[in-house]
Amino acid sequence: MAAIGRKALLSINTLRPLVACFHTARGLHGVAPLTSAIQAPVSKPEGRTTATLIPGDGVGPELCQVVLDVFQNAGVPVDFEEHYLTELYARRSESLDDVVDSIKRNRLCLKGILATPDHSSDGELKTLNMKLRDELDLYANVVHVKSLDGINVRHKNIDMVVIREQTEGEYSALEHESVAGVVECLKIMTRQKCRRIAKFAFDYATKHGRKKVTAVHKANIMKLGDGLFLKQCEEVAAMYPNIEFSNMIVDNCTMQMVSNPHQFDVLVLPNLYGNIIDNLAAGLVGGAGVVAGASYSSDSVVFEPGARHTFSEAVGKNVANPTAMLLASANMLNHINLQYYGDMIRNSVDRVIRVGKVRTKDMGGFATTTAFANAVIANLQQ
């Protein structure tokens, strides 16, 4: 188990370059470099930043190691406090309080996916993920679903943002068996949290130049709970006359997304619907391995893969796609005003995928996790 609060960062051995053309003007595979990767630094502040690192379960530790390797080779001025947090091996896990204290102190976290067992061994209904979100008030989960040039999928040029409220709704852990064989599960919706996520969505659209926000709901059936959510979205929308607003029933949304995903720009959803839709959307652009996400509170941000799949069946096989974790780390760097490094990593990942000679199995190739990481490292300075 990683020591609590230990510095884990970039004390690893440097990976060897893949090819001799690492330093040549033409770059890897003889393809001209992306011009955006060699522009003058956008933001490259002095000093170092400390972030919390939670490797997670499944292939999470392997993917986080790729990030550490890439950060070292890129010279990223970030130090990590690594904490081992898991619900699968409770005796090995560090305490949630220690992890929360670290994130509150650093206000920044890079996180692998935490597995959630189907059954609790101690009768606890609230999962570790839910506890972490509640302790930090990580109310807004943002997944930017965008097509990557070089991945063969049915729909091209997808560019949408799924914003999910993730501190209430069906994930309230309020269940009980009223009589034998009858279970009641409570869905909690509050005006304050519905309005907060709606405001977040419209503020996000305004800041990022988005044109339309769609509220996804089931108010035709859950007239009070989802009706409250829809009403708050409508009231907030009235304060943003330059942003187009629409609403869509969730079951229709799933059909529309797979048939015509280009109609969507920003979607805002309650907890359960958001979890379903962002995973569905990730599948449209290549799957869980290529989409990054982030969870926001008013004080902290946790960056992680956008589709929450631990890929536990691939542990130790060196086949997992590190793209989502690398893109999440690049987003983290942009968030802390290290855009120079964030763009360097993102451009390198985009270039490797676009060239198409190093692809993991989920992208239609046969490359290992290590080979993909080496290719990204070899392209960092292109």
UniProtKB/TrEMBL annotation:
GO-annotated biological processes: isocitrate metabolic process; tricarboxylic acid cycle
GO molecular function terms noted in the UniProt entry: magnesium ion binding; NAD binding; oxidoreductase activity, acting on the CH-OH group of donors, NAD or NADP as acceptor
InterPro entries: IsoCit/isopropylmalate_DH_CS, Isocitrate_DH_NAD, IsoPropMal-DH-like_dom
Domain Isopropylmalate dehydrogenase-like residues, every copy: 50-376
Alphabetic keyword roster: Mitochondrion, Transit peptide, Tricarboxylic acid cycle
Localization terms from the record: Mitochondrion
Gene3D superfamilies: Isopropylmalate Dehydrogenase
One CC-aspect GO term: mitochondrion
Mitochondrion found in the keyword field: yes
Family statement: Belongs to the isocitrate and isopropylmalate dehydrogenases family.
Protein's recorded name: Isocitrate dehydrogenase [NAD] subunit, mitochondrial
